[in-house]
Amino acid sequence: MALEMKVPSPGESITEVEIAQWLVETGDYVEKDQAVAEVDSDKATLELPAEASGIITLIAEEGDAVAVGQVVCLIDIEAAKPDGAAAPAPVAETPKVEEKKEESKPIAPAKAQTYATGTASPAAKKVLAEKGMDANQIQGTGRDGRITKADALDAKPSMGTPGLGSRGEERKKLSMLRRKVAERLVSVKNETAMLTTFNEVDMQPIFDLRNKYKEGFKTRHGVGLGFMSFFTLACVRALKMYPAVNSMIDGDFMVSYDFQDISIAVSGPKGLMVPVIRNAENLSFRGVESEVKRLALRARDGQITVDEMTGGTFTITNGGVFGSMLSTPIINPPQSAILGMHNIVERPIVRDGQIVIAPIMYVALSYDHRIIDGKESVGFLVAVKEALENPEELLMDNNITRALEM
After folding, report:
1. Residue 46 in domain
2. Is 221 one of the annotated active-site residues of the chain?
């Protein structure tokens, strides 16, 4: 009796997935709940577990887009489990010995080869290699068309002539996750009135706090005191001050939220993923750092779920970890704004009337101008800047010890 295995629904809005990789082959015996395939949805990569034990027959192929509920393989649940004790190890070893013998066969005939007429002399070859030219591009004037050193010295590469380097190419189908991300990014550019405003942040106060308290923070909580907790809490404060930035468009309506679910863009093995920190307004520095670490590890290990990436009222993306100086981040739909962090570089600034060197980060806020006006967007970014440049007062309520112990 053959059991038909169908694609389960990964989430309400997902109608199809793509077979990213089969982990078994036709004819293999699989155990119940064993992962038999990895499937890509438009939000995450998920494992497909066997629904029963038996001999599996694959129907769909890697790269196929299959609808939710479609049969992708059959499992013969009446098939007996093969005896795994009789592994043909000696058989597998025999070819290896033969291969080594074949590899050790004499290669003297290759050494005995002589240059054919019309080829380059050794001196000419050296000159052509220095010029990055191929002998086939040169008409030799020596005996039987042999290319002489003089021919090589006189040769000039023609414009557009390929060099000696590799000119191969690879054609690889984009994963469903990458195709969906591309589709959404183009949609945002076409369907929103996106605009970006910029500012700069003097990170010295945060540097001073981290240098003084990071060791004790890590010892006490088991996580590092990074920049994300400062930025997340600064955004939570600014979102409360400018609720339009924490809103979305739904048809002819603007939907605003009294909570702050902060999406954080992270790089995973399958591409960009955006897990969500729920109710960030209720979290302390320790809470934010612990949640960032947890979500980042799950994204890196391919364990992130669709639910963990669904929702979010505002997004923070940190291109600075890759060395980005400045960018215009694209809004994460259906949200209306996204904050871009960038690298921190020592730059000359004026502080208290004096020119000093300070660690400066450029920040960018991209927003949907349909519901967020310039006054609100600029005010929001200034509020973030103020909180980051005065964290002790605006983020820690003038009690650093208490803020970092919670």
Report:
1. yes
2. no
